[in-house]
Amino acid sequence: SQQGEEDPQALSIQEGENATMNCSYKTSINNLQWYRQNSGRGLVHLILIRSNEREKHSGRLRVTLDTSKKSSSLLITASRAADTASYFCATASGGSYIPTFGRGTSLIVHP
Amino acid sequence: KAGVTQTPRYLIKTRGQQVTLSCSPISGHRSVSWYQQTPGQGLQFLFEYFSETQRNKGNFPGRFSGRQFSNSRSEMNVSTLELGDSALYLCASSPATTSYNEQFFGPGTRLTVL
Q1: Which among B81, B78, B35, B26 has a CA at the least distance from the CA of B57?
Q2: Per-residue DSSP letters for chain B?
Q3: Interface contact B40, partner A, CB < 8 A
Q4: Residue A40 and residue B108: Cβ atoms within 8 Å?
Q5: Cβ contacts of B23 on chain A, cutoff 8 Å
């Protein structure tokens, strides 16, 4: 079963707009990661945030983590058509470092 | 460094057959994990190998097996294929030893079972 669940399932925006995706999870985590997957291909690691961190930035990406609400958000600023992909959150919890993936948010950025 | 490579990229089999998929990790990475991705179940963890030993295992039937060689290359085998085994099989490597490190994914093998 999935630990993290992304919301929304699908998101369609215009180039230049910001895109926000959310991830909720059920049990305490060690870390949470976001990955991107272009259509039918492998996943690319975007960012990892540890349970004692609240916010991380990487280029146009901003990730926040609220452990009290068991949720995380991924913000992509000034989106580009090349950002069109599925975005997954993955959590590791307990004594395991194996990430459990959510079902993903499908993002379409229209040029 | 070269990325994670998976062969073959596409495969078509019929029910009852068996299949072997191959994964070459990034040089120096000793951990290799396998995932199955389907539209219905999403990304599900199959197993992880580290130093030729299966270190973690997901909730899949015994028809799914794997192994890792001394050069860290890994293979997974699915016997007695079922229609539901049609999926994208992803391999990921990591330098992980005892704590979590980023996983690097290959492009996947698309398996179709007819």
Answers
A1: B35
A2: ----EEE-SEEEE-TT--EEEEEEPPTT--EEEEEEEETTTEEEEEEEEETTEEEEE-S--TTEEEEE-TTS-EEEEE-S--GGG-EEEEEEEE--SSS----EE---EEEEE-
A3: no
A4: yes
A5: none
Which chain A residues have any C-beta within 8 angstroms of a chain B C-beta? 2, 30-31, 33, 35, 40-45, 48, 88, 92, 96-104
Per-residue pLDDT reduced to its tens digit, B79-101: 999 999 999 999 999 886 655 66
pLDDT in tens, A5-52: 888 999 999 999 999 999 999 988 888 999 999 987 889 999 999 999
Collapse the DSSP code of A50 into the 3-class scheme (helix H, G, I; strand E, B; otherwise coil) and give the result: strand
- How many CB contacts within 8 angstroms connect chain A with chain B? 49
Chain A positions touching B36 (Cβ under 8 A) are none
Backbone phi, psi, residue B84, to 5°: -70, -5
